[in-house]
Each structure stands twice: as C-alpha cells, then as structure tokens.
C-alpha cells in the first residue's frame, strides 16, 4: 500500500530512502553555523525533481516559540512565474513537488538542526500553484508538536487571490506572507510580469484583507 505522509516523513528523515511513494535523497549538503542548505532529489512517478531547502537558525522571541530554527521548504522544482529577479523562474520547467517530498525536506533539515520550530514555504516555486500538495503537507506537519502551534507554518506567495481565500478557510492557523515587491501595479508588471498580469494588485490586496479578517 501507498505509505501515509507520516510514514514518508519518518522514512525520508535521513539522507536518503525509498518506498512505494517514491525516492528522496540529499544530493548536496552545506552546513553554516547552526543552519545550512540542502540540494535534494525526489523521484516521483519516474521523474527526478531537484530543489533546495534552507535551514535558518535565528531566535524569534516575538513569535512565542523563542529559540529554535526555521526550515525554508520548496513546493515546486522550478517556478512558472519567471519573475525578473529570480533565478528559479529561469529553469526549463516547473514541476509540482508531492506532499511527501515537502514533508521529507523537514525531516532532512532536522539532520542539520534538530531544534526546528517553524516551517516557511519560501523556497523554490509558488506554493499556491501547488495548493493540493502544499495543503496535504501542512496538515501532516501540524500533527507534530513543534508545528501544531498557531502560525508555526508560513506560506509565502506573490499573490494568488482565490488560493489565498482557500488557505484562510482550510488552514486558519497558517500565517500568510505576500511578496508584493512594489506598491504600484505598473512597477509590479515590470518586476513580476507574469504574476502581475494574472493577478492584479487590487485583487491581491482584496484577498489579503479578507484573509486578515
């Protein structure tokens, strides 16, 4: 049978492992202080997907967790939005990462920093364009005490209004971060041409205010 995400999380918590869900392995690892970075490969349905995970060790006493590290996970291998300043958008093709590969990043990050307290979806890809898998990963991660706290998990987005509304409804204890990059629509269209065209600033802000309510 196909393993549940929790089984995948434990199975892929090491440097590499495989199961009927796929195969996850850390290709390269760099430690810096109490944090570091991982380049991983997830083989899913016969395709090898590579992306990055970053571990940030810096206290944030204002969030209620005190000491502890943050893991920055990727939701896609590549990104379809091709923002002008971002190298990820220049990759040949964007592919959604399955939920087990997202959860596995957290397990692998614990090898660098066991005291993980926060997860941020700020790595490669636009999380809200892979909403189903991101949502499943959030639900699985929230079963663990460090991430069950309100706002221990943050989803960062360039602004996908309909998915922001869905995130607020289905995951009210998840924090939202919006990367506007510019306060005017015209400037956003130069910096984020694809995202700004698909989701005008006025619609993004309306969704954000609704989320806050």
Structure description:
This protein is α/β, with parallel strands linked by helices and 213 residues long. The chain has eight helices and ten strands. The strands form two sheets. An eight-stranded mixed β-sheet has the order 1-2-3-4-5-8-9-10, covered by helices on one side. Strand 3 and strand 4 form a beta hairpin. The longest helix has 14 residues. The radius of gyration is 17 Å and the shape is globular. The N terminus is likely disordered.
Number of helices: 8
Tell me the span between the first and last alpha carbons. Answer: 42 Å
Tell me the strand order in the biggest sheet: 1-2-3-4-5-8-9-10
What is the overall pLDDT average? 81
- The fraction of residues assigned to DSSP E strands is 25-35%
What is the global morphology?
globular
Percent range of helical residues: 25-40%
Secondary-structure class: alpha/beta
Order of helices and strands: HEEEEEEEHEHHEHEHHH
Regions with little confidence, pLDDT below 50 for 5+ residues: 1-18
Work out the number of β strands.
10
- Rounded to an integer in angstroms, the radius of gyration calculated over CA atoms is 17 Å
Key terms:
alpha/beta, two-stranded antiparallel sheet, 8 helices
């Amino acid at each position: 049978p196909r393993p549940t995400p929790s089984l995948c999380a434990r199975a892929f918590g090491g440097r590499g492992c495989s199961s009927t869900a796929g195969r996850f392995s850390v290709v390269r690892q760099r430690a810096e202080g109490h944090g570091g970075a991982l380049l991983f490969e997830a083989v899913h349905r016969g395709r090898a997907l590579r992306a990055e995970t970053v571990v940030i060790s810096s206290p944030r006493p204002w969030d209620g967790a005190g000491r502890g590290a943050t893991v920055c996970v990727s939701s896609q291998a590549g990104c379809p939005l091709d923002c002008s300043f971002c190298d990820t958008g220049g990759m040949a093709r964007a592919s959604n990462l399955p939920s087990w590969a997202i959860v596995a990043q957290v397990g692998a990050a614990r090898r660098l920093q066991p005291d993980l307290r926060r997860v941020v979806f700020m790595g490669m890809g636009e999380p809200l364009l892979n909403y189903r898998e991101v949502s499943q990963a959030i639900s699985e991660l929230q079963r663990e005490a460090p991430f069950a706290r309100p706002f221990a998990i943050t989803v960062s987005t360039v602004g996908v209004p309909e998915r922001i509304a869905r995130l607020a409804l289905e995951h009210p204890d998840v924090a939202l971060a919006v990367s506007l990059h510019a306060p005017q629509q015209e400037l956003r269209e130069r910096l984020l041409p694809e995202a700004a065209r698909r989701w005008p600033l006025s619609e993004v802000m309306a969704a954000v205010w609704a989320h806050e309510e």
